[in-house]
Amino acid sequence: METVFSKIIEGVIPCKKVFENDRILAFYDIEPAAPVHVLIIPKKYIASMNEVTAEDLPLIAEIHSVAQQIAVELGVAESGYRLINNCGPDSGQAVHHLHYHLLGGAKLGALTGNSSSHA
Hints:
Layout: H1 4-10, E1 17-20, E2 24-28, E3 36-42, H2 57-73, E4 81-84, E5 100-104
Antiparallel strand pairs: 1-2, 2-3, 3-5, 4-5
């Protein structure tokens, strides 16, 4: 499936890379929602978290490890950051290619809903 992310992976659309290996690409979001806003995507096409299989779990773990590394490199690991994966239309998933948003660099607002019961 061709998406804006597949075009970025292929190099058709340029990006400002933060990290890349054979399986994962991370780059700055062009419309940042925080001072640090990096998108982390698998190079393998997976439409959303709903399509992740047991075979994909090592890749998901690697994405989280890369997120930790990026947070350290960009200086937000100690102050705090948010790692977000939107899944499906009600979540606001706009690109149907699994991706994570790493947000930090400022005090982030509270999430909606009663988060104290979900701690």
